[in-house]
Amino acid sequence: MVKRIQCWFETKAFGVCEWWGQKLGINSTRIRMYFIYLSFFTIGSPVIIYFIMAFILEHKRYFKPQRSKRRSVWDL
Fold first, then answer.
1. If we measure between CA atoms, which residue out of 13, 42, 48 comes closest to residue 21?
2. Is residue 27 part of a domain?
3. 35: domain range?
4. What's the predicted TM-score (pTM) here?
Protein backbone atom coordinates (compact mmCIF):
# COMPACT_ATOMS: atom_id res chain seq x y z
CA MET A 1 0.00 0.00 0.00
CA VAL A 2 2.80 2.43 0.90
CA LYS A 3 4.69 1.57 -2.29
CA ARG A 4 1.55 2.28 -4.32
CA ILE A 5 1.12 5.69 -2.71
CA GLN A 6 4.81 6.49 -3.16
CA CYS A 7 4.67 5.47 -6.83
CA TRP A 8 1.57 7.63 -7.38
CA PHE A 9 3.24 10.68 -5.83
CA GLU A 10 6.42 10.16 -7.81
CA THR A 11 4.54 10.01 -11.12
CA LYS A 12 2.13 12.85 -10.32
CA ALA A 13 4.60 15.19 -8.62
CA PHE A 14 6.07 18.09 -10.49
CA GLY A 15 9.58 16.64 -10.59
CA VAL A 16 11.23 19.28 -8.44
CA CYS A 17 12.91 16.78 -6.10
CA GLU A 18 14.02 14.63 -9.00
CA TRP A 19 15.47 17.68 -10.78
CA TRP A 20 17.37 18.73 -7.63
CA GLY A 21 18.54 15.16 -7.17
CA GLN A 22 19.99 15.05 -10.65
CA LYS A 23 21.66 18.45 -10.25
CA LEU A 24 23.17 17.67 -6.84
CA GLY A 25 23.81 13.96 -7.34
CA ILE A 26 21.58 12.98 -4.40
CA ASN A 27 18.77 10.45 -4.27
CA SER A 28 15.41 12.20 -4.80
CA THR A 29 13.83 10.30 -1.89
CA ARG A 30 16.28 11.95 0.51
CA ILE A 31 15.43 15.38 -0.88
CA ARG A 32 11.72 14.66 -0.41
CA MET A 33 12.37 13.76 3.23
CA TYR A 34 14.25 17.03 3.73
CA PHE A 35 11.30 18.95 2.31
CA ILE A 36 8.96 17.16 4.68
CA TYR A 37 11.18 17.74 7.73
CA LEU A 38 11.72 21.39 6.87
CA SER A 39 8.00 21.85 6.39
CA PHE A 40 7.34 20.62 9.92
CA PHE A 41 10.09 22.73 11.49
CA THR A 42 9.36 25.95 9.59
CA ILE A 43 5.56 25.70 9.51
CA GLY A 44 5.17 25.04 5.80
CA SER A 45 7.39 27.62 4.11
CA PRO A 46 9.30 24.99 2.04
CA VAL A 47 5.98 23.95 0.53
CA ILE A 48 5.59 27.46 -0.90
CA ILE A 49 9.15 27.32 -2.23
CA TYR A 50 8.42 23.87 -3.71
CA PHE A 51 5.40 25.21 -5.62
CA ILE A 52 7.39 28.18 -6.91
CA MET A 53 10.12 25.84 -8.16
CA ALA A 54 7.49 23.56 -9.71
CA PHE A 55 5.98 26.53 -11.55
CA ILE A 56 9.39 27.57 -12.86
CA LEU A 57 10.23 24.03 -13.98
CA GLU A 58 6.89 23.66 -15.75
CA HIS A 59 7.35 26.99 -17.56
CA LYS A 60 11.13 27.10 -17.94
CA ARG A 61 10.91 27.53 -21.69
CA TYR A 62 9.50 31.02 -21.04
CA PHE A 63 12.35 31.96 -18.71
CA LYS A 64 15.17 31.09 -21.10
CA PRO A 65 16.35 33.84 -23.43
CA GLN A 66 15.51 33.27 -27.07
CA ARG A 67 18.63 32.86 -29.13
CA SER A 68 18.51 32.92 -32.85
CA LYS A 69 20.78 30.44 -34.53
CA ARG A 70 23.04 31.73 -37.22
CA ARG A 71 23.17 29.68 -40.36
CA SER A 72 26.57 30.91 -41.44
CA VAL A 73 29.31 33.30 -40.42
CA TRP A 74 27.94 35.97 -42.72
CA ASP A 75 24.53 36.17 -41.02
CA LEU A 76 24.69 38.99 -38.50
1. 13
2. yes
3. 2-63
4. 0.56
Question: How far is CA 17 from each of CA 30, 33, 35, 56, 65, rounded to the nearest angstrom?
Answer: 9, 10, 9, 13, 25
How many CA atoms lie within 13 Å of 38's alpha carbon, on the beta-carbon side?
A: 12
CA dist., res. 76 & res. 65, Å (int): 18
In a domain, 68, yes or no: no
Print pLDDT tens along the chain (76 aa): 778 877 776 666 667 888 888 888 888 888 888 888 888 888 878 888 888 888 888 777 776 766 666 676 665 5
